[in-house]
Amino acid sequence: MTGPDSAPVEDRRDSWEGPIPVPTGANTEFWAATLEGELVYQQCEECGTAQLYPRAVCTGCGVVGPPFETSSGVGTVYSYTVCHVPGEPGFGDRTPYVVAAVDLEEGPRLLALVDCEPADVEIGSAVAVTFWQVSDEAALPVFVPH
Question: Where is the ChsH2 rubredoxin-like zinc ribbon domain positioned along the sequence (predicted)?
Answer without folding.
Answer: 31-62
